[in-house]
Design brief:
The chain is about 75% helix and about 0% strand. The protein is mainly α. It has one domain. The model is unreliable at about 155-170 (pLDDT under 50).
Length: about 425
């Protein structure tokens, strides 16, 4: 597409500034996702006795254009605008998360709100919002921490410079006594003032740390109440990745990981749906997983099996086990190419993020990338039987309107973070 740099319209500015590698990688995944839904979802429609076998294809197609438009719109926004919209949408998103608790359960959890025409999963939309909110608070904490360190450093430097008497002070000892008394009093007053300022900054910093913890705990409680262990882990990944990049100590990281492990043990003990999933994994008693692995084994190495064995027997083939359908349809070699697209996309985004100096850009970027990586790894690992199965979608490939729109918004934010903000002035 030939667009001159002298052009001043909105699209020209966006096109010249947007990262083409990320954009085309995501569009490639979206196109492939639609194609694989054409192959896999009709079997699910027949299994559910729907009159239109392309029901799920049409449904997901309804979200494609709004999702892509939303991605472009968000990627064209200034970071200041994204921060404002995030703050505005945070409380309504949390309220929607609370409302889900009053709807009937599906697959063991209250995750969706049914509006009749469409169903939405509020926790999906909350993921990028949560990543931005945590990044904003961490930036405030970091700024206050840096101010405290600057005051302390300057105070130490002045102490060292006045620690030993000068030659002039020794020679003029008696006259200087009165000056030293005056200097000592002034120095005490200055140190007292600086200590008071440090104390105020520490209080503000501790308030932001408390806010950070309260938000995280509050959302985790709402997710566990659904209960949705997988989404709770996803939000924990966002939180841990951002505070780790912000400079948290390794001891605290391991302590939080240990606390998370203890939380999973409690979930196994008190959440029947989660217990059932884990027991299925430990006893190899998961029908869908066994069929998925059989189809992968039987698939032609290069071009796929084309047996349709998997698609006809696995209920969640268009969502949780979509990658198994990919292998059955196109074969392991082409399936690995899809993984390579994901790997290239993630590596490239991290590489571009590494060159950024803005703390907000780094924190929020890492938060979003971390949960995208987690979703990819979790979905692929559960499909291959490495970990227990859980309803985690494969971004842009699995069926799911809320997941698709949320992923588009997340990539839109990443595209905005990677752009040179000076080009938008």
């Amino acid at each position: 597409m030939f667009i001159r740099r002298t052009e001043n319209n909105w699209f020209a500015k966006w096109w010249l500034g947007v990262d083409k590698v990320v954009l085309f990688a995501v569009l490639t995944l979206i196109i492939f996702g639609i194609l694989i839904q054409f192959a896999a979802s009709p079997y699910q429609a027949r299994r559910m006795n729907l009159s239109d076998e392309y029901h799920f294809v049409k449904n997901i197609s309804m979200y494609v254009l709004p999702g892509i438009f939303g991605m472009i719109l968000v990627s064209s926004m200034k970071l200041k605008t994204i921060r404002k919209l995030t703050v505005i949408s945070f409380i309504p998103s949390c309220l929607l998360l609370i409302i889900t608790l009053f709807f009937s359960k599906a697959k063991g959890a209250n995750r969706w709100i049914n509006f009749g025409i469409i169903k939405i999963q509020p926790s999906e939309f909350l993921k990028p919002i949560f990543a931005i909110i945590i990044a904003m608070i961490l930036v405030r904490i970091k700024d206050l921490h840096d101010k405290i360190r600057v005051i302390e450093k300057n105070n130490k430097i002045k102490k060292r410079n006045t620690m030993y008497p000068t030659v002039l002070e020794v020679i003029n000892f008696i006259p200087m006594v009165f000056y030293n008394i005056y200097f000592f009093i002034r120095k005490k007053q200055r140190i007292k003032k600086e200590l008071s300022e440090i104390e105020n900054l520490e209080k503000r910093k501790n308030r932001y740390i408390s806010l950070l913890i309260y938000i995280f705990v509050f959302i985790c409680i709402l997710l566990i109440a659904q209960p949705d262990v997988g989404m709770t882990v996803t939000f924990s990944i966002i939180f841990l990745s951002e505070i780790f990049v912000a400079g948290i100590s390794w001891i605290l990281v391991f302590a939080l990981l240990g606390l998370g492990g203890f939380g999973l043990l409690l979930a196994y003990e008190f959440l029947p749906h989660f217990t059932h999933r884990v027991n299925q994994f430990l006893t190899n008693d998961n029908y869908q997983l066994r069929k998925a692995l059989d189809a992968i084994k039987e698939s032609n190495f290069l071009f796929g099996g084309h047996t349709n064995n998997l698609k006809t027997v696995v209920p969640d083939i268009h969502t949780d086990f979509i990658f198994a359908a990919v292998i059955e349809e196109v074969g392991p070699i082409l399936s690995i190419l899809i993984i390579m697209v994901f790997l290239t996309l993630i590596t490239y985004m991290l590489y571009k993020l590494k060159s950024k100096k803005d703390s907000f850009v780094i924190f929020s970027g890492i938060g979003i990338i971390s949960y995208v990586v987690f979703q990819i790894m979790f979905n692929l690992s559960s499909t291959l039987g490495i970990i227990p199965t859980k309803g985690t979608t494969l971004p842009f490939i699995s069926y799911g309107g809320s997941s698709f729109i949320s992923s588009c918004f997340a990539i839109g934010i990443i595209l905005s973070l990677l752009q040179d903000q000076n080009l938008r002035r």
